[in-house]
Amino acid sequence: MILLVLSLLFGILFCWWDVQKPKGFPPGPKWLPIVGNFPQIFQLKKSLGYHHKIWHHLSREYGNVVGLRLGRDRLIVVSGCEAIRDFYSRAEFDGRPNGFFFTVRSFNQRLGLVFTDGQDWDAQRRFCMKTLKQLGFGRYSMVKRIEREAEEMIEYMWRKNEQDGGIFMHNAFDISVLNVLWTLMAGRRYDLEDERLTQLMRLIHECFRIIDMSGGILNQYPALRHIMPHFSGYKPLMATFRPIWNFLRETIEEISRSKVDANEPKSLIEAYVRQIKASAKDGTTPFTEDQLLAVCLDMFQAGSETTSNTLAFALIYMLHYPHVAQRVKDELMTIVGPTSLPKLEQRALLPYTEAVLCEIQRCANVAPLAIVHRATEAVHFMGFTVPKDTLALVSLYSLHMDPKAWRNPHEFNPERFLDGNNQLVNHEGFLPFGSGRRRCMGENLAKSSLFLFFATFMHVFEAKLPDGETKLPDLEGYDGITLSPKAYRVILSRRQHTARQHSLGLFVILLLCICLLGALLVAKELRRPKNFPPGPQWLPIVGNSPQLRREARKFGGLHRVYGMWMEKYGSSVLGMKLGGTLYAVGSSYDVVREIHMREEFEGRPKNFFMRLRTMGSLRGITCVDGAMWAEHRAFAVKHLRNAGYGRQPMELAIGEELEDLLALIEHQMGAAGPFWPGKILPVSVLNVLWTFTAGKPLGRDDVRIEKLLSLLQERSKAFDMSGGVLSSMPWIRFLAPEWSGYNLIRRFNEELRDLLMETIDAHHESYSEDKSSDDLIYAFIKEMKQQQNTQNPQSTFTNIQLTMVILDIFIAGSQTTSITIDLALMMLLLHPEMQDKIYEEIMQNNDAKNLSSSPHGNFPFTEAYLMEVRRFFNVVPISGPRRTTRDTHLGGYSIPRNTTILINLHSVHMDEEHWGDPYTFRPERFLSGGKICNAERLMPFGQGKRRCLGDTLARACIFTFFTGIVQKFKLAPIADEPPDGKRRCLGDTLARACIFTFFTGIVQKFKLAPIADEPPDVNLLPGITLSPKPYRVLFEKR
């Protein structure tokens, strides 16, 4: 009796203790002993139907952080923009649960990528990301895979539609989506009608519907699998896991048996197998066969389920909103054209299509709950105390349907993702891929796949319900870990892109109207605005483009043509038209200074070339104006200075790079003899700037840098400052993509985007607050996070903007400075007396020991020499382009708003009235009494607010590199060297016979004309920047 009483008392005390909430735990429904809140959850599931709606319902009752208990585990549910943003910023919530459901899928161990944490997760993620990037993940090769898969997909869909009189779309994208990732994982793709893959994808969909993101009752009471295997979900789960395990094992074994290429693995599995073998001796290695199988399972499931479901929901939304579908198709037709398929590079030119996809992801909420997290330690969060090992569910559904963040959140409205300029905007309340360190690692792949598959389908097909069916497919879908669409069938037809047939009479009328409109258009095109600057008469449509290109080729560059036209028309302001855009060219010192200093000339044109230059985004610093330019220029200047720009750290960086450059010159001379210094200077200059931008130099051994610099050189020669033919006639890219330079810029953009994204991704992964002053990228990421925390929907601090800022720095920092140094060295060969004078000035100066920090004023002749190089060669003879932000006047002429302005710096630097002998190279013109003078007319970096923000670095690099080279080496032209051999060649008889016979035979048949040795040429190659023709120089160590 006493034992019974004690047992009863103990039971009562246990129940009382078990229902107590930890101190400071978030509010929520009271829980029961042992089972926690499971009974309430089951009841709410019956009434609401979906797990994410349960959590949303509780958050509306208890707040944005709800505390519950499911079985043994404490759980918090995080909702709302503020709480979710704060949650993702906390490293304490980066853990993953360790329950039965989360380990049974990986052989009762914590394996894989999705449900692990700590060092094992970090090692696996780093290895996988590194290998996938080497295989093309996030790069151009991956894009081409997706584009090819999209082509295969539409052919399969059309074939299936024709065979069966329609097609089921709820699973039509499954294997296409999987193939994109599986080519990286296993180095192969599968036929879209493969029966085994179709069955496996069906099992994956079922697996995701069996249980919810919390792990369900099976996770809390795994013993139930022995008592109620069906009710607990254990038996259905194992029925789906076993076939997938078998398939993955077979794939791994097949790749393991094949010959593994130690240098170039063709897939992630092959690279992983190699890693397993390499670390087999280490018993604690995280790389095992079970781990590989778990990683493959994570990729197999995560890489197919959400993306394919989103695409299936996308078509349902298009059936529900045909006006939206039509606008998407119209945009695709305008940009892509009737005979092509969409390309990923066109994504920035298709903002409405992108906005529709964003709105579909927001409304469909395929992943309404993020993957469950775990608190790795006790943490104070949103005013509550969350104990260690508490599980956490993030309700992305609440975020995407939050009326505080979205106006009419339940309304399907793609325009909410577009700004007033019809450009895509980032919304802080939109996080379909999560955020923070546990953000979906396949986000870029998923976004690219979503865009290309959706855009290709919409561009090729019209979809309608089968005859007799009036009920549209359900927008709700099935509940589960993810939401999946219910089965639905459509009939496809290929879109007709040809015009309808019209009657002959209508055709004649239309033709007459076109002729009349054409005549009116020609008259309008030929009309010159009132009081517009003088210039040549332009043609309809093309304007002055043909004449300008023809004369530029004939006379050696636009600056020469503008100089001749300035004399011909007797005006320092020229007016012309390129394509459909008015241009004004300002020449002479007074006009150029006026353009530099007046506010209405600070705009940038928004033409096709500018869009192409910025990868379709019109972002960055160089190519934008207004508030965005002011904000980001000020930000860049501030944080570059914080990192040491213009101060001692910059001097040290230049000094270190100079040491490397001098060592490289010495090595080159020993290995290859005389060489052209212009091949090695760009990387040296770029390394200095990259140190402040990305925290470290790029490295000379990276073949991508050499390729990028080569493409940049081609780009510079293919275009001029007006943007070339692409700017005035962008349609020409469809007719002559290679000749117009369109393909060249695409190749350059693709190569550079790969390099930049790799750098940015690495910074995101390693970011911490204490690194924010290390370099510009870390500072930008910090600002991005601060803007997100302040919930600023108009923030311009985005990954796209960061990419464009770095692009501006790369382009600006890799050509003009290195070309100037190259020209300064070249002129030493033509003026050896100046080389001696500069060397003597360097060696007589006490500051010569540390040139990077020496005041330039202590080297007056050297500084005057470098100024004369900049004046004489005019590396950027035409600067700009600018855009007038309002109607204005210049030089007594009327300049309409949105006229493109080009600044003829060549006319200032070669003005005979001021310089007297401008075509004579004479550094002394900048000296008076041993001091620098006459510098106000030298403006290679521009003036005013839009002055080059890198002029300080450029001047320092030019001075330090040039003087450092002259201090250590004497530059000499190449002379013929007599042989000094003393040992007679034993093959002299054969050599004499060959020489005599070959020589007399050639002389008998050909007349040979001599070619004199040519010195370095001061006539530069034209382009956006002028550059010297390659020459070789002998560096003699002093």
Automatic annotation (TrEMBL):
Protein location: Membrane
| GO CC entries | cytoplasm; membrane
| Cofactors (names) | heme
Position of the signal peptide: 1-24
Q: Where are the transmembrane segments?
A: 504-523
* Residues given in the record as heme binding sites: 440
**GO molecular function, one example?**
heme binding
One GO term under biological process is:
xenobiotic metabolic process
**CDD domains given in the database record:** CYP15A1-like
Q: Which UniProt keywords apply?
A: Heme, Iron, Membrane, Metal-binding, Monooxygenase, Oxidoreductase, Signal, Transmembrane, Transmembrane helix
SUPFAM superfamilies hit by this protein: Cytochrome P450
Mind telling me which InterPro entries this protein's record contains?
Cyt_P450 (IPR001128), Cyt_P450_CS (IPR017972), Cyt_P450_E_grp-I (IPR002401), Cyt_P450_sf (IPR036396), Cytochrome_P450_fam2 (IPR050182)
What family, per the record? Belongs to the cytochrome P450 family.
Q: What is this protein called?
A: Cytochrome
Phylogenetic classification of the source organism: Eukaryota, Metazoa, Ecdysozoa, Arthropoda, Hexapoda
